[in-house]
Amino acid sequence: MSVKKVLETIKENNIEWVDFRFVDLGGRAHHISLPASEVEDETFVNGVAFDGSSITGFRGIEESDMVMMPDPSTTYIDPFTAHPTLNIMCDIFTPDGERYERDPRGIAVKAEEFLQASGVGSAAFFAPESEFFIFDDVRYESGMNSSSYFVDSEEAAWNTGRKEEGGNMAFKVGVKGGYVPVAPVDSQQDIRSEMCRLLAEAGLRIERHHHEVATAGQAEINFRFDTLKKTADNLLTYKYIVQNTARQYGKVATFMPKPLFGDNGSGMHVHQSIFNGSEPLFYEKGAYANLSEMALNYIGGILYHAPALIALTNPSTNSFKRLVPGYEAPVNLVYSKGNRSAAVRIPVAAVTPKGCRIEFRTPDSTANPYLAFSAMLMAGLDGIKKKMNPEELGYGPYDKNIYELSDAEKAKIRSVPGTLDEALDALEADHDFLTEGGVFTEDFIANYVSLKRSEAQAVAIRVHPHEYSLYFDV
């Protein structure tokens, strides 16, 4: 959408407010609303000022003035506001007109430019499968003398014996029993369909939705792949609409990777490929999984740099509650066709040459998508540049259930880091591939690691409720 079209949309839809948005290092969106009457052509030239010192990980108070530069192509009408509002995503610049090096969206721009300058291809395409839970009740606290959380869902396995007003409706979803059942077991068809309707109105092309494996309302909605930055934009829109639709239904949606103990967590499997114009570069008919040498080298880069990547694709302490064996978690740094126990899966069902792609299954939705997609692309390009053959590096292919291998066979397979701190250690030791072409900077990485270390420390020093079960009577 052009600036002219944005201004026409404001008039045609009687828009009262224009909401200018940007994303912080953690992937959370922030916004400032201007009266629509104040939005003119100059707004898209001069931008919207904001205080960068109030955003964690950005700037100090002595250099706090920053500018949001609106991207008119990201415009959509907000479906939730009482006063008609237009939402627009922005890039972040300094007052002197320089792109801010810690702006995650700006890093995505640089990653796409680096791909084009490399001569490998013209565009990288991404498609995330971002899973989430829909709960009916969520409560938590963390204080000096108490620490607890509580979640509930009308369809949860633990509620088979609950007496509700009017009687228990039964048909609960069993533990690991929630993959694509029909109603009445799947009680959330309509809320997911409403989410999809609103996502489509916002410009996302919806491919499908369904209940996921876990009990208590785990769900997945898939939207069409797009270029790196556009897909990251779409993912922020996706999370906004999912969470606010749930709220309208009197429920709450969370993208937290592991909100429940003892059942599957929520991942964000990321499908990715590279094209040169209209030509798909990952396809070679008759090769293993119909993958080209370029695609294999891209996989080699992903798996070689995976420990460092995971600091950006799984950047929460909760991420590592999901990354444990036994819950379909892709903890094994190998590749395979059609095998969901591998970190990298190559989809083979109903795949056309243009649909040929690789799927990195380790990430989750606590990731900032601009950073995560950019980092994956940079790792893959490093693999292409250095011709990293994943088979020669010992990454497979493994075309069998890895969880059922013998201990001796498993010992040969690298695993993901076990904690956020371990992943951050790996990122500090291995990040030259990210700084190629100035896509990520040393300043950004040092700042990012510092912020994430503080999160890990905040969790590590707090008393865990289960420690009372283990140690109170010693």
UniProtKB/TrEMBL annotation:
Pfam families: Gln-synt_C, Gln-synt_N. Its EC number is 6.3.1.2. One of its GO terms (biological process) is nitrogen utilization. GO terms for cellular component: cytoplasm; membrane. ATP binds at E207, F223, R224, F225, H271, Q272, S273, R340, K354. PROSITE patterns: GLNA_1, GLNA_ATP, GS_BETA_GRASP, GS_CATALYTIC. It comes from the Bacteria. Keywords: ATP-binding, Cytoplasm, Ligase, Magnesium, Metal-binding, Nucleotide-binding, Phosphoprotein. It is an enzyme of class 6 (ligase). Its cofactor is Mg(2+). The keyword Ligase applies. Its main location: cytoplasm. InterPro entries: Gln_synt_N (IPR008147), Gln_synt_N_sf (IPR036651), Gln_synth/guanido_kin_cat_dom (IPR014746), Gln_synth_cat_dom (IPR008146), Gln_synth_gly_rich_site (IPR027303), Gln_synth_I (IPR004809), Gln_synth_N_conserv_site (IPR027302). Mg(2+) binds at E129, E131, E212, E220, H269, E359. Belongs to the glutamine synthetase family. This is Glutamine synthetase. It comes from Paenibacillus donghaensis. The gene is glnA.
